[in-house]
Amino acid sequence: MSQLESLVREFAELLSKGRSLDAMERFYAPEVAVFENRELARAGKAKCLQYEREALANQPDAPRFKLSKLAVNDSTGHAFLEYVVRFRSAQGRPMRLEEVAVQSWENGQIVQERFYYEGVVDEGDEP
């Protein structure tokens, strides 16, 4: 396993344990740029951490990330991750988001992360 793949897997493992803030703190570069569906959503690690803290404060439980696919290109420093994210809305409804993240890595840190998704699915009332 390459060094980049090892770092990407460590990042994904933190997410799968509900530790998104730790993952961002550890792996986001100070100047990271985050895009949501081709639009710049946040620039800078501090803004990304603030956004994540606010998002987590509105959820009763930490989101559950399940990584389904991973590809790494060592020569370009890119990683492609496909996730299913399950979480509860502020109203307690079970929700699901399927997304792809494209990461650009430099010197062991994520300098750009692009998320692609179509929307959140309300999974309805649980039995």
Key terms:
127 residues, alpha+beta, Nuclear Transport Factor 2, Chain: A, 6-stranded mixed β-sheet, 28% helix, globular
Overall description:
The structure is a single chain. The protein is 28% helix and 49% strand. With 127 residues, the protein is of the alpha+beta class. The protein has a single domain (3-122), classed as Nuclear Transport Factor 2, Chain: A (Roll), CATH 3.10.450. Strands 2-1-6-5-4-3 form a six-stranded mixed sheet. Strand 1 (28-36) and strand 2 (39-43) form a beta hairpin. Helix 1 (3-16) packs antiparallel against helix 2 (20-27) and helix 2 (20-27) runs antiparallel to helix 3 (45-57). The radius of gyration is 14 Å and the shape is globular. The model has no long low-confidence stretch (mean pLDDT 93).
Q: What is the element string, with H for helices and E for strands?
A: HHEEHEEEE
| Content of β-strand | over 45%
Q: What is the radius of gyration computed over CA atoms, rounded to a whole number of angstroms?
A: 14 Å
Continuous helix count: 3
**How many domains is the backbone divided into?**
1
Which runs of at least 5 residues are low in confidence (pLDDT < 50)?
Answer: none
What strand line-up does the widest sheet have? 2-1-6-5-4-3
Q: Largest sheet, described in full?
A: 6 strands, mixed
- Highest-level CATH class: Alpha Beta
Overall SS class: alpha+beta
Count of distinct strands: 6
Mean pLDDT score: 93
CATH topology description: Nuclear Transport Factor 2, Chain: A
User: End-to-end distance, in Å?
Assistant: 42 Å
In short:
The chain has helices at residues 3-16, 20-27, 45-57, and strands at 28-36, 39-43, 64-73, 78-88, 94-106, 109-122. It has 127 residues and is α+β, with helices and mostly antiparallel strands.
